[in-house]
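thread: overnight batch results

M.L. [08:02]
morning all. the overnight job finished for the chain we discussed friday. pasting input first so we're all looking at the same thing
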Amino acid sequence: QVQLVESGGGLVQAGGSLRLSCAASGRTFSINFMGWFRQAPGKEREFVAAISWSGDSTYYADSVKGRFTISRDYAKNTMYLQMNSLKPEDAAVYYCAASRSYYSAGYYTKDFYNYWGQGTQVTVSS
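M.L. [08:03]
and the structure it wrote out:
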C-alpha cells in the first residue's frame, strides 16, 4: 500500500501563487507515475498534471499549462504542484494520486491511479 498526504492549500487572491505538496509513504517503490486532480463543488474530478516518477515526463491539462508546474523530489518521496497566476476557476479541492502503471497511456484518467490522498482545499478570491 501507498499512503499520500497533501498539504499547502489555502486562500489566495487571484493572480497569486501556492505550492502544493504530496508526501508518499509505504511501498513507494511501486510508484511509476503521480498526478494531481481537482474537484470543484458540483463538478467532476478533473486532471490537472502528472509526472513520471523518474521525472522524465510531465503532462498538463490545457487549462493550467504555462501557469502550473509539477515536480518531484525523489529522495523525499514528495511531489509538488507550483501554481502561479491563480484564477477563481482554479478553486477546488486538489487531490494527489499515484499509479503503479509502467506506461503513460491514460495518465489523465482517474482509473489510471491506484492510490489517492485526502485532498487539500484551494480557494482563490477575485
